[in-house]
Design brief:
alpha+beta; Gyrase A, domain 2; 4-stranded antiparallel β-sheet; two-stranded antiparallel ribbon
Length: about 150
Amino acid sequence: MKRKRQQKILEIIANNIVLTQDDIQNLLLAAGFKVTQSTVSRDIKELRLIKGHDAAGNYRYVSSEIRDTDKQSFAHYREIFSRYTTSVDYALNDVVIKCVAGMASSVCVALDAMYNDMMLGTIAGDDTIFIVTRSEAQAMQLTNELKKMM
């Protein structure tokens, strides 16, 4: 049941402009799924859904994962990064990225998808992302690549 429900959520966000968990819950209820807000919240977290802009510029829930069958590509993530990032710098093996207020989470998801192999971990706040790499050399390399995208 969980898998079917989560598939339905992905279908819902692909076909509707969904802004809130309440919208998802109501559309699931209309489709015959008996769900609570806490279940929807857990599903959103497990599916790694984020609020971001779609190709048409609408702000809505979108999937953070790239699927081969989707037309979504790294180009979309590069656009998110370049549009909402204001600065990138590093010290030792840490990279700090400043973003437009409220967009650090979306930018962080894009970075996780594009550069996961270069990072030990990421933490996103409201307007700042903190990245830990394995070495200073990796931090410098990542910073240089990110600055090129800006």
